[in-house]
Every structure is written in structure tokens, then in C-alpha cells.
Amino acid sequence: MNFGALFALAAGLLALPAAGAVLKVGPQEALAVPSQAARVAEDGDTIEIAAGEYYDCAVWRQNDITITGPDDPTTPAVLTDAACQGKALFVITGRGVTVRRLTFSRVRVADGNGAGIRAEGADLTVVHSRFVNNQSGILAADQPEGTLTILDSVFERNGAATDARCVATLAVGSLRLLRIERSRFAAARACDMVRVGGGRTEVVESRFEDGPGGAAQRMLALGGGALLVRDSQFARGPGAVPPEAAIERRDLWGTAGDALVERTTMFNETGRRGVLVRNLTSGTVRLEGNRVGDGDVVLDETGWWMARARSMARGALDTARGLAGTVKRGLRSLLPV
Q1: Architecture of domain 17-332 in CATH?
Q2: CA-to-CA distance for 21 and 7, rounded, in angstroms?
Q3: For the segment 100-128, what is each residue's pLDDT rounded down to a tens digit?
Q4: What is the Cα gyration radius of the chain?
């Protein structure tokens, strides 16, 4: 017997993380509502929420947990009409959390930005979930090294405008990566459908549509970083609010990367000229195989020179500040101690 090999195998098994517990939530369970599970769950656990309507919210501080609803989409688990910390139905501060097959509905808070999920930890994944009639579907804090992945999910009738703010259906700060795949955004009540502060954004096989009564502004509003849009559709209805661009890229801090938009279609029923991509950055936009209607344009770069001027101005300001600091340090070195 090779005792060295056996010892190595045993050591490797001991190094593996222990499998988490499965916590069951439901009217017939010891944990009747999600907030009770959130208080006792540990890192690595799986929380299974039974079908039903829960007037409850929860704060999840654990890492690497999975929170899941029923396999059968005809019997959903719905969280509704509550907000923890005045923020959201789920406030997620843990890292590496996955949310599956849950519905988040009717969140309202006093300052107008109640969300289905408030993502305050890094690397959140949302799969086969629905966000319906909230002030915002998901609000994600700045996580420059974090990711947010949205797969096979639906956002309907979200968004809110108040005197103080305009809240997007999906509002994201600066992330390393936002990935939206096979998902649908429909009938935003106000403001942008997706607003991203910075980092790379990828949209694949997804659809954005105003729908009856929808009044979205931009469907993708990007504040910097690189962009990929592939095999997607943008349908602007008669109630859409200007600006007329479905995708708008801005560069407020000189962080814009290049963009690729391919095999993507825009349908325009606004009665105004539509723009698939408006590029207000100094980054390049590559276009392949896209389609728009008669009178509409795929790319508008008329504001490019303004973005370039802002970038140059910021560079000059940074240089001036650096020079001023050098001069100041030099003068201090001449003063007597």
C-alpha cells in the first residue's frame, strides 16, 4: 500500500470545504419566512423557499449561499410589500450569493428607491427570477472587483421618478463585470431600464421593450467601461421618453473602453428618429450585422468631440495638479526647519 498517496488523498479531502446545510422555509416548516432563515444560515448553506406569498424581507450576510424557490414556475415563491433597512426585499451583503427562481414584487420605500434586491456584496448571480412592479428591480453598490450576473430573468413595470431622483429598473455602480443573458426588461414606468456606472457590460440574447404604457428613457445607459451587446432586441414604444437612443455611452471619468454591438435589432414606434447606439465617449464602437428601421440610425457619434475635449481637459487638470504639488514640495524643502 502506498501510504504516501493515501496521506495526500486524506489531506486533500480534509482541505475541501464542508458541504453546507439545506434550510427549508415555508408555512409548514420550522422556518416559516425567509428572514428567519437569514438569521441562522451559515456560509455555504442552501435556503429552499416553498411556494407561497411572503410579506417578509431578509438581510443576507453569509457568503457562498444559494437562495432558491420551487422548481415548478407555476407555483412561485413571491416576496412582496416589505423592505429591510428601508432598502429592499433582499439586502445581500455576503459574497458569492446565488438567487434562483424567486419573484420580488411591489417594493416601496419613502425615498423612492425600494428594490427587489439591494446588492452590497460582490459576485451576485440571479437566475430564473422575476422583478415586478418595484421602484427598482436591483440596485447594486460600487464593487470595482465584483460581478453581477443575471440569467433567464424578467423585469416588468419597475422604475420610479421623484423630485429628488430617477431610479432605473437595474441600477449598478462600478463593477468589474455586469453580465445580462437571456433576460427581458419590459414596460419600465420611468427612467432608464439599465444604468451602469462603470466597468465591463455584456448583454447577450436579451430583449428590452417598452410595452403597453412603458415610458423608458434609455434602455442601456453606460457611464464608462467596455461594452458587448450580441443577439439582442430593443423595442421602443410610442410612450418612450427622450433621449431617442436605445443604448447611450457616456464617459464622465475617462474610463470608456471599446464597444462591440452585433446581430442586434431595434424596433422604433416613437414617431421620432431612433438611434441604436449613441457614443458620447472617445472609445470606438464596432458594429456587425445590426438592423434598424427606415429613417433610424445604428450609430450616432456627433457628441464624440465633446467627450474627447472633456478627456483632454481632465488630463490637463491632472497634469496641472501634479505640477502644483511638485512646486509646493520644492518650496517646502527650501524653508528652514
Answers
A1: 3 Solenoid (2.160)
A2: 28
A3: 999 999 999 998 999 999 999 999 999 99
A4: 24
